Amino acid sequence: MSRVLVPVLLIIVSAGLLFSYIKPAYENLQEFKFQEAELVEAIEDAERLMEGYQGLLRDKSSISEENQRDLEKILPDAIDVVQLIVDLDVLTQENKLEIKSFEIPYIDREAVMSGAQLSNKTRSNQKQGNGPVGSAVLTVEVTGDYDNFKAFLLDIERSVALVDATLLDIQVPNEFKPGTDKDITYTVGLQAYWLKAE
Questions:
Q1: How deeply is 93 buried, as exposed, middle or buried, from its count of CB atoms within 10 A (0-12, 13-18, 19+)?
Q2: I want to staple 141 with a disulfide (CB 3.0 to 4.6 A). Which of 100, 164, 183, 189 is the partner?
Q3: CATH number at residue 120
Q4: What is the tally of structural domains in the chain?
């Protein structure tokens, strides 16, 4: 009888161990293996990203300081409204035009570069629109001769800063005749761009 009872007890104990310890331990081991595979994949992705980042840093360091300054002028980290107005004033004076008025749109204060921020350029945190680039339109009203105005637009086109003319309204004075001294009024919308915060 004991010959039969001992093997039966061993089978029962083995089955109990299988369901109470071995099976949960095996399932935990499988879960750990799955997590390990995910972690290995994440580490490989991080290494690839780090290699890409190091490559971008090498590319950036190969750009000369002069070219970096030009890139910052093309697409700055923030809008320097005062400098933009000064630049427009210089362009209008060089082209013998007179600024009658200008309108600055509302721009998030974090997108505007003040004098104190010039040393540590803060990036814009504009919520409007999608994408990494923010934009705003500055409207300028100038008066002067048509040929001078055309030269003014060409100077804006040739400027390093990325600016688009998005609006043009021309008002000719009453009884305007070619060759007279009466100036034409031009309203121009200039769209400026900056990099948003990441």
A1: exposed
A2: 100
A3: 3.30.70.60
A4: 2
